[in-house]
Amino acid sequence: MKQKLNLYFSLFLKFLAFFAAFYVLFNSSVNMVIFPFAFGAMFALAWANQKVWLVCPAYVFAGVLNCPTWENAVSLIVAAFCLIVPYFFHVLCKKNMKKWEFALFATISQVGEVAFQIIGGFSPVLCLVEVFLGVLFMFACIIVFEAFIIRGFTSKLTALEIVSLFSILASLCGGLVVLNAGQFSFLKLFMCFVLLVFASCSTSLLTLLLASIGGIGTLIATNNPLFIAPFVIWALSALLFKRKNRIFMILAVIAAELLMGFYFKIYYSFGIIQMLPVLISSVAFFILPNSFCNELAVVFNLSRDRLAMKNVVNRNREILHNRLGNLAEVFNDINLIYRNLMKKNMSFEDVKEILQQELVDKICSYCPERSHCHRTYAESTKKVFDELIKIAFDKGRATLLDIPSHLTSRCKQTTSILSGINALTSQYKKYMTMVQDVDTSKLIMADQLLGVSKILGGLASEVESNVSFDTARESKILDELTYHNIICIDVVVYERDEWTQVVSVVVRNDDAGKKRIVDCVSKICGKKMSVFETFASSRPGYTVVNLQTAPRFDCLFGVSQRTKNGSKVSGDTYSIIKLDANKLLFAICDGMGSGDKAEKASELSISLIENFYRAGFDNDIILSTVNKLLKLHKEEIFSALDICVVDQKNGLCDFIKMATPKSFILNENGCKQIETGALPMGIVDEIKPLVEKECLSAKDVVVLVSDGISDSFVSDDALVDCIKSIKTKNPQEFADELLEMALAGNNGYAVDDMTVVAIKILDF
């Protein structure tokens, strides 16, 4: 029952809407002589699948109310009959009517009207003009109804559809201009509301064109250009505050109306009644839902929305995600293949068995005592051979002193046995070294392939989600930059993730370095933004400035070094690199010893580590790979490594330490020590660095030192006391002062290469 009531109510509202539209169109004219618009609208509504049994009664009642004569009533009934009969005939035949058929029936429908007009002395030529204009208006209405009623608010209007829409609005204005309730103007009520909506949802050009068309519609109907100027002034006033809050647009239009009415006296009379239509339409616009305006903006193709471009971006991200995921799987499969290609080392017992058998075959096979030794004393002989092989492996060489007396007393081949054992063990060691190097190379390749697989998988995850563009903020940023005399030709605002918002602006080269850009973008986005890259635009004379949500913390750092006395170059190498927009890496690499060899060792290690980190590899893969590469080197290269990775977004800090002195975090609560651990890189196959995570706060100071600094103090506690005693807030001065104190502990003599890196954490 409730559903039926709702249905009847909606049908009643639709009937009233049709009735009101027809009543206005019956009053719309050309110079108050011909009235061609109402019947065209009736046929157009039928074409747009509106219920004929609602449209035709609304048309007849509106026409009779407008002109209550029997001639007019007959003319209206004839027109409705010419629509109803062919319409239902085509419905029964299940055959769609074509537009030319509608045009034909619409022309025939005016036979009664034309006959009565000619009998009444009306010009036949004007009658034909009226019919022609009515049919033309029908086609305009069909074009618009197809766009809105049939297609919906899903795509932009074409140029022809916009022209047709404006012709309908002009006709409505021509009808409303003569419909007043005393001094209350329905025309002003309608046009003020429509102009405010257009100003917020469409382009400035279309809004001004609409204002002009509305005024021209009243001019055509009444031969009076009175409303052209007010409508254009309303449009200009609203457009001045288009990018601001709605209330500013409304206030601007109200102020313009007051000025025109009271100050410039543009109207014949002006008072509160004449002002009321503008106030009512302003309130109606203010409470209009944003969703409606957003849908209408699509229809008028507000160019800043660029839906096609954004859909292309997201589609490309989806394709890239799939390809990166497939590539990650390929590299992971190759990684597994390389690991399976590695030769597995035999157990020492198996090696002894093989070498012993080869020794027997080469030396003992021709000995006349073979049966006696390997049968009668088989167990004893095997044990001696095993021990000799073990000694050769452990000491590098077996001698006559290692052979038991019971074997020398009966064996005449002891010299040959010794030389054979030593030769075989030496050859096997060389072979195993070669195999291990090959296996290490395969493992390095496997590690790199695994790392590449993880990087591609991470990139695939980053581009998996769609980019959410923020059109409203784009427009506001453009206006704000223009207001501050920064010429900006394009803005894109999107969210990379829930925490990070990215803004890309294209500005003149002269404006690219202005701090005002950051201030304006931060103001519109409601959060602090920072520039993370700038590059030349494809358009000459312009630069692209990319900004993103500023991290929570910033880092200032200072570095101080001193080469060991007597050495020309330092074996300590430091590195400070930006891994991404929010992460910084600080590292000290100490090549064992000093001088050229230590310098080359530390430079090689730190260069490898920098490049791996920049590429995005994991800590474990980086350190494992660098360790294996150093171990493969012909010369022995050992390096102590101290790494500190600071995440500016949340203040988390990763310490990765291998055979380095302690690191320190100085804050208000004291000085925390980060322990050391692991052997230097390049010594053993498998490394286990100390990895510790700390949470930093603003004003904390992180101190990294090489062993040349720590060894200059009698103990770690003495070094801690020294760090606490430094009061400067400048990290460079802090590093310089700590180095001077370390040198003072050795009477100004650098006993080893000395490096200090001081990092101060600040609020961004």
C-alpha Rg (nearest Å): 45 Å
Helical residue percent band:
55-70%
Q: What is the helix tally?
A: 27
Indicate the low-confidence ranges by residue numbers.
Answer: none
In the CATH scheme, the class of the largest domain would be Alpha Beta
> Going across the major beta sheet, what is the strand order?
3-4-5-7-6
CATH superfamily of the largest domain, by name, is PPM-type phosphatase domain
The name of the CATH topology of the largest domain is Phosphatase 2c, domain 1
Distance between the termini: 64 Å
Look at the helices and sheets and give the structural class. alpha+beta
Number of E-state strands = 17
What do the pLDDT scores average to? 78
Bulk shape: elongated
CATH architecture of the largest domain: 4-Layer Sandwich
Largest sheet, if any?
A: 5 strands, antiparallel
> What portion of the residues fall into strands of 2 or more residues?
5-15%
Please, how many domains? Answer: 5
Describe it:
By secondary structure, this protein is an alpha+beta fold. The protein has 5 domains: 1-152; 180-301, no CATH class; 355-438, no CATH class; 468-549, Alpha-Beta Plaits, CATH 3.30.70; 553-763, PPM-type phosphatase domain (Phosphatase 2c, domain 1). Helices cover 58% and strands 15% of the residues. It contains 27 helices and 17 strands. The strands form 4 sheets. Strands 3-4-5-7-6 form a 5-stranded antiparallel sheet. α12 runs antiparallel to α13 (272-286). The longest helix is centred in the middle third of the chain and has 49 residues, at 414-462. The protein is elongated and about 155 Å long. The mean pLDDT is 78.
